[in-house]
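Q: For a teaching handout, I want to show students what a protein-ligand complex looks like in token form. Below are the inputs, and the small molecule is nicotinamide-adenine-dinucleotide. Please produce the holo structure.
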Amino acid sequence: MSKSILNICCIGAGYVGGPTMTVIADKCPNIKVNVVDINSERIKKWNDKDLSKLPIYEPGLKEIIERCRNKNLFFSTEIQKHISNADMIFISVNTPTKTKGIGAGQASDLKWVEASSREIAKYSKGKTIVVEKSTLPVRTARTIKEILEASVSKDDYDSSNAKEFSVLSNPEFLSEGNAVNDLENPDRVLIGGEDKEAISLLREIYLNWVKEEKIITTDLWSSELSKLVANAFLAQRVSSINTVSSLCEATGADIKNVSLAIGTDKRIGPLFLNAGPGFGGSCFKKDISNLVYIYNHYGLKEEAEYWQKVIDINYWQQNRITEIILKNLFGTITDKKISILGFSFKANTNDTRESPAIRICKNLIEEGGNLSIYDPQVKAEAIEFNLNLAEHELFDTEAKVGSWQFSNTIIESTKNADAVVVMTEWEEFKYINWNEIIKMMRKPPWLFDTRSITNIKKAKEAGMKTWRLGFNEKINQ
Ligand code: NAD
Ligand code: UDX
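A: Here is the structure, written as tokens, with nicotinamide-adenine-dinucleotide included.
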């Protein structure tokens, strides 16, 4: 094996592969990084001269792309060529929940991981370190190894360029919207494996910018399992605080004060205690579902039920919010215009996967509401895909209920609206001029803030009726 890594290939140019490889290329100018993908449209966007067209919106990303692209960072569809030239290959492909067959709704669909492994087995040359970057069920490295080793023929043993593989687990902990910062300043880098030399070569790469004490090395299985468990613990905090939000509304306590008060205990900590419409994103639900599936696989039923509840509470919160909106709008929203501010699953990303806005919008459309959706980064096509309903198309033509339309501005979205629902904590929603908005709204005008980020005081002074999650206006009058 070479003394250091000079050629990296990353399979998968998505939310993880793209930013992770960009930062590696930036921090390691001597390494040539090729990011490959089967999706040619996505690769075209990564290569677009106009950096506003990158397929992923992530603060700080385009500046680094500008520095490194076509110097030591390349995006391409030439998978075979770049696998052949690489001495280290990262697998960063999608691992969504299976939609059919055994384990549907819970187990991870590993078909893209298997396809990548087969490609590596076929096209790699000499000694290759294969790094699992995707989040995978514990013991997946064994499957990857089996696929890779099956490709080593007996003749290889006599050849000078014999295929040889080492499989490492190096899960990614970045969170979207903060990916560049998370990658540049990680809390830890986790490397699991058996081959000490391979571990050392991967460690060398991170040591270019990560302090030694932040690099944790473990066995393969602990590394794979830790990633699933880390996400489950984070999601559990969100579900826990969300169950407290309804109790605050019932008792007159204020969820923001409760979060602050409990978060100052260093054993609890201040982060991940913001109550909201529930966790979204491509990871939490998928990874906890997978954990539940693994528990059940090992016959650990009680533990599986315990973690399943974290997911159930998430949907409960979204349905609860829908009911609150309906109740305050006199029990019906048929033919009412509802302005939805924010559709991404959190601020600073254009990702809409599992966004809580999806379920709440679907619920409101089903109730007959006409939604006007504005998000600073999400495109109309993504909303249409998630709601499974074309813009302006009525949800049920027979009953003439519910529709949605895309808005380009907050003003357009709120004009003639009966209510404004803040779904995502985008910075610009903090500074809405309620005096201006209220003039154009139907009366009585409502503001429902599911993220507790708007200036409720100013909205009230302007004459808005307000509701914010985890706070009871009536009790606190
Ligand atoms: P993504 O869907 O954005 O990207 C995956 C990419 O892989 C797609 O562009 C797809 O076309 C490509 N791909 C699939 N099969 C391929 C093949 N055989 N050859 C070449 N390209 C192929 O997914 P993502 O959000 O980047 O997530 C990737 C993995 O990282 C998942 O396992 C996920 O759980 C994990 N992860 C995601 C995040 C996150 O914040 N999104 C964070 C940590 C870990
Ligand atoms: C998560 C993990 O944080 C990250 O480590 C992992 O690599 C991938 O999954 P991500 O899904 O990108 O990252 O975003 P995150 O910031 O964790 O938020 C997840 C969801 O929880 C969002 O919908 C967010 O709005 C919600 N959330 C988060 C809350 O409702 N309250 C909080 O206090 C924090």
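A: Two things your students might notice: Residues 418 and 442 are 5 Å apart (CA to CA). The first strand starts at residue 7 and ends at 11.
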